Amino acid sequence: MILRCTLVGMAAFVAITLGTPAVASKSPANAGAMQDELLSHPNAERRAKGLSPLRLSAKLDKAAQGHGCDNANRMSMSHVSSDGRTLKNRLRRVGYAFRTAAENTGRGFASGARVVQWWMNSSKHRDNILLRKAKEVGIGIAVSPAPDNKIHWILVVGASK
Hints:
4 strands, 41% helix, globular
């Protein structure tokens, strides 16, 4: 289940109130297929290491998608939200009580396969994908506003309490 980007923040509210077009990220039309494709790659990497596959979590999806939209709106690849929130704060906000959690971000990759390949070539991102304690995953995918139009990818892995 992929969640859609929504207009958030004071800038969007002001733009709508004043009648000017609001600039905001959007979810790709094929976001569900992109999510499925992205998920298959970390799970293949986990299987190759004898780890259990990650299963989708609605709460992790909500946190990941929200952060993906926030990053896309800012054309950023940050682990800190525009309001200063960290992964821990974002997970608490969506009601995900976690024992462990980690997050990967990516920007500009045309496919889930490419972003996972990039993450697997980074020791910290690879460690997140192969986190033994992780059981669940959330995926956020958003496209930044024109003229940038880059895809933003968020992968959040975790284990609930």
